[in-house]
Amino acid sequence: xxxxxxxxxxxxxxxxxxxxxxxxxxxxxxxxxxxxxxxxxxxxxxxxxxxxxxxxxxxxxxxxxxxxxxxxxxxxxxxxxxxxxxxxxxxxxxxxxxxxxxxxxxxxxxxxxxxxxxxxxxxxxxxxxxxxxxxxxxxxxxxxxxxxxxxxxxxxxxxxxxxxxxxxxxxxxxxxxxxxxxxxxxxxxxxx
Amino acid sequence: xxxxxxxxxxxxxxxxxxxxxxxxxxxxxxxxxxxxxxxxxxxxxxxxxxxxxxxxxxxxxxxxxxxxxxxxxxxxxxxxxxxxxxxxxxxxxxxxxxxxxxxxxxxxxxxxxxxxxxxxxxxxxxxxxxxxxxxxxxxxxxxxxxxxxxxxxxxxxxxxxxxxxxxxxxxxxxxxxxxxxxxxxxxxxxxx
Amino acid sequence: xxxxxxxxxxxxxxxxxxxxxxxxxxxxxxxxxxxxxxxxxxxxxxxxxxxxxxxxxxxxxxxxxxxxxxxxxxxxxxxxxxxxxxxxxxxxxxxxxxxxxxxxxxxxxxxxxxxxxxxxxxxxxxxxxxxxxxxxxxxxxxxxxxxxxxxxxxxxxxxxxxxxxxxxxxxxxxxxxxxxxxxxxxxxxxxx
Amino acid sequence: xxxxxxxxxxxxxxxxxxxxxxxxxxxxxxxxxxxxxxxxxxxxxxxxxxxxxxxxxxxxxxxxxxxxxxxxxxxxxxxxxxxxxxxxxxxxxxxxxxxxxxxxxxxxxxxxxxxxxxxxxxxxxxxxxxxxxxxxxxxxxxxxxxxxxxxxxxxxxxxxxxxxxxxxxxxxxxxxxxxxxxxxxxxxxxxx
DNA sequence: TATGAATGAGTATTCATTCAT
DNA sequence: AATGAATGAATACTCATTCAT
Lengths: 192, 192, 192, 192
Fold this sequence. Notes:
4 copies of one chain form a homotetramer.
Chain A: H1 2-23, H2 26-29, H3 32-38, H4 43-49, H5 53-72, H6 82-99, H7 101-111, H8 118-125, H9 129-140, H10 149-156, H11 158-168, H12 176-190
The first copy, chain A, binds a DNA duplex through helix 1 and helix 4.
C-alpha cells in the first residue's frame, strides 16, 4: 500500500531528524519545530506519529538499539568457541560504532543522561540478551571470570564508546589496528 | 576580606545549584531562573559572575574536574612502584565517584554530550597530567602495554563511570569487594 | 430510507457530543477533534453536516431550543384560564430543566456568552411565541401587569436557570416543594 | 513608591484587558497573547503578576466582585427599615450594572460558565454577606417570605442580569422608569 | 555588588480546517 | 458519504538575557 509506506517513510524521517539534531547540540537543540522542519513536515504532523516528545525520543532510542543489536549479532554462530563468538560480536559492535557514528553517539548520550525513561531503557536491554548468554557459557566453561555481567560489560563493551567518541572528535584515530588492540585489552580484562 | 569571601560563596552556591539541577533532569531542567532560585539569588546576579549560561557550565565543568583531580592524586607518592601508584590513583578516583555522586554523574553527562566547549574540555584534561606521566613511566619500565593513553584510559578509568552509573540507578551494587575486582580487571587489561 | 436515517443519526450524535463537551468544560474544551472522537466519526465528517464550528454550535442551539419549546408547550390547552396556562408552561419549563440538565445548562451558557450569533438567537426566540401570546392575553384580561415581556421573562422564567444552576452545583436542592414555591414567587411578581 | 505604583498599574491594565477581551468574544477570544498586546506588555510579563491563565481569571473575578460589592453597599444605612435598605442595595446593584456594563456582563458570563473555580466562586460570595443579613432581618420582622436566600436571590437580583443583557444588546431599553418597575417586581415576589 | 521587573523569541502542544482517496 | 493524514497558525507558558535602580 503506497499510503502505508509513505507513513513509514515519514516516521523514519522524523526519527532521523531527531537523531541528527540531538547529536549536534543535545536535546536542547532538538526542538519539535526544528525536527519538523528538518523532516520537511508540519510540527503538528509529529503528533500523528508520536504521543509527545518523550515518546519520540523513546522510540528513537529503541529503534537505534534494535539496529545496534541487529548489527552486533550478524553472522553470529553460537556453536563456535566462546572467544571466537565474543570476538565476532565485539567487532560487529565496533563496526556499528564506526559505520554509524550518529546512531552510536546518540546511544552514548543516552547512557549518562536522564533522557530516556528507565522503563524504555530496560526494554532496550533485552536486545543484548545473546551476549549475556554467551558470557554465561564462557563462565560455565571456565574461560571468563566469574563476575557480574555489569563488570564484563563495563570493561569490554563500554570502553569502545569512549574510543569512538575520541575518534569522532578527531583526538584519537581508531583504525583497524587499534580496534584489534582494543579487543585484546577487552579480552585480557575478563578472561580467566 | 569579608566581601570577597561573600562573593566566592555566592559563586560557589551558583555552581552547586547548577550541578544539582543538571544532575536531576539534565540541562533542560537547569534554567537560569531555577539556578538563581536554588542559589537564593536574583537571575541578574548570575551574570555578575558568569558571562552566560555556557560560561557557567564550562566553569562548573572545570571546577568539578579540579576537585576530581585533587581527590585523584591525594596521598600520591610518585616514588612508589608503578602498579602501587596506579592503584592508589585508581582507588582515589573510584572513591570520588562513590563519595561525590552528583559531581561524578555530572562529569559522565559531560563526557558524551555536546554540553561543554571542546576548548574547555581540553583544559580539563591537564588536571590528569600526573596519571599520563605515570603511564609513560610504566611503559618505560615495560610494565604497561605500549599503547595510546586513550586506550589506557578507556579500559581503566572510563569503565568505572559505567559502574557508578549502574550503582546510582540501583541496578548493580558497587561495594568495596566489587571495587577491588574492578581494579583487577582494569589492571589485567593494560598490564604487559 | 436507511441511508438518510443513518445520516440523521450521525448529525444527532455530533450535536449530542458537542452538547456534552461544552457542558463539561465550556467551549474551550469542545474541540472539533474531541467532538469527532466522542461521536465516533472522523473530524472531516463534521464538515459534511456543518459549515464550520460556529454553524455546529448555532444548530445545536436551535435544536435544543426546539426541544425546550416542545416540552414547554406540552399538554398546553390555550382555553384554560391564564394563570392555569402559565403554571402549566412554567412547570413544563422547570421540568425540562430538571430532566435535561445538560441541555438546560447549555442554554444557560448561551444566554450570557458571545457563543451564539445574534441572528441565531433571534431565531431561537420564535419558539417561545405562545408564551408571549399568553402574556398578552393575561394583560388584556387585567391579570398580568402591563409591562414589557422582557420584564415578565426576567422575573418568571429566567430565575429558574439560576436555581437549576445551584441545584447542579449541589449548593441548593430544588425539589417539588421548592418548585411550587418558586412558581409562587414568579407569579407574585407579575400578577396585578 | 513609584515602582510599586507602576506595578499596580500594570496589573490593573492586565485585568482590564482580560475583562475587555472576555466580554467581546468569551474566553476563547481572550488568549494570553491578545491580553498582553492589549495591555501593551510582553506575554511573559503576565506571568510576573499571575500564576497562569486560570489565576488571572480568578483574580479578575474577585476584583470585579469586590467592586460590585463596594458599589452595592454604598451609602447603606443598616438602621433604615428593611424595604428601604433593600431598595438602596438593589438600586446600587442596578446602577453598577448600568454604569459598568463590561464588568457586569463579565460577571454574568461567569455565572453560567465553568470559567471560575468553585473555590474562587465561594470567595466571591462573601462580599454579599450584608445582603444576606438584611434578608434574615426582613424574615425575622415578618416582612420577607421565609424561604432560602437562593430563592430570594434568584427572583430579585438575578433578573437584572437578564435585563441589562437585553439592554446591552439594544433589544430592550432599561431606563429609570423600567428600573423602578423592576424593583417593584422584585419586591412583589419576595414580600410577604 | 545586587536586584526585581521586563522582554522577544522560543517551548511543546493543539487548533479548526482541508484534501486526496 | 466518509475518512485519515496533513497543516499553518494558534495555544499557554518558559527561556536566557538585559536594564534601570
